[in-house]
What does this fold into?
Amino acid sequence: MARGRKPGQFGSVNLAPSGRHRARYVGPDDQRYSRTFSEYDAAAAWLAQAQADIAYGKWSPPTRRRGAPAEPSMGDRERLTVAEWSARWLEAGSSRWSARTASDYESRLRLHFLPDLGQRRLGEVSRTDIDAWFSRLKRRRGPGVSRTAYMTTRALFASAVEEGLLAESPVRVKGGDRHEPVRRAKIDGDGHILTPAQVRAQAQAMPERLAALVWLGARCGLRLGEILGLRRCDLDLDRRTVSVRRQAVTCKGGMKETARLKTQASRRVVALPASLVPILESHLKTHARAGKRGLVFPRPGGRGKKSHEHPNSMRRVVSQAAVEAGLPEDLTPHDLRHTCLTEVARAGATLAEIMAVAGHSDPQVAMTYQHATRDRLSALADAVDSLYSGLGSVA
It folds into this structure.
């Protein structure tokens, strides 16, 4: 229960939405200071210490906890705009979030929310404003973009509530965070599924330094970012394994490696087919960077954040090679992964085994690879039909 502030009392303690007790007071510099605690007594003790320090002239601004946005002064609170709070929130969060998350949050707010409501005062934004913004964005950009922008905006305003700037968040659109699939699985498969001969043709059409990328996607089911993030120490050719520990992600100023994969399931060890060992041995000798931590697919001449190949460049190279190999121009690196996972399913892998190879944590996603093609359905029908061949006509 929130105990608040009594007349004549120094500071206040309130129960935050997170369930923690938030202690706040205004210092001698007219700045508001706050800290959260798991227990009320600890919050009250912190206030008592601050009050004593002020009384005896020993007070100094407390060190703000890591990752907390700087709290505005009392006068500033009345004028604080959404854009200003957004900048403070992003700056504070950069110490806690991965580089990719920070980049995604910044771009979603900058592109999809701040142009509409960024100049409004934080406390003036209403549920009606948010509902109207979300509806416009969904019509203009579709369910995928609107959902991620909504979730980031909701986090932004939740932080304002947590910091005591708002009594409640106006970001409460019913179904705003609901996932709406934009692609429908087909009987023929979701995307292109290549035959072994087509995979070989694609690899041969690639620049020599990138041919192994095709094989790792089509035979091991690795995501493009996972392939580009591989280092020599991740490949154990004697044991025929690839350890997927990190990925290369797109950030401002180039590529930046991160060890934070999407889920625990993404961090995995994948078996290498025996036929890939000599291909990778040759690639490591000729194209990979030296040293245990050397990139397996370095960008020629690249250094620092520019060391990794950029995913967009790789997509263009895959498309150009596909045309040269006589394959669909819209072939993507994901189609290579999709080819692998579909063949694993066709080989009789269980759902758990598909999830292990793919690095999936959601069975529903893994189940999309258990679809059947028309050729496969025909083959199964013929196999079953052969059981009845000795019966003569079935008419």
Remarks:
- The first strand starts at residue 12 and ends at 15.
- The longest helix spans residues 127-162.
- DSSP finds 14 helices and eight strands in the chain.
- The chain has three domains: 1-63, 74-162, 196-379.
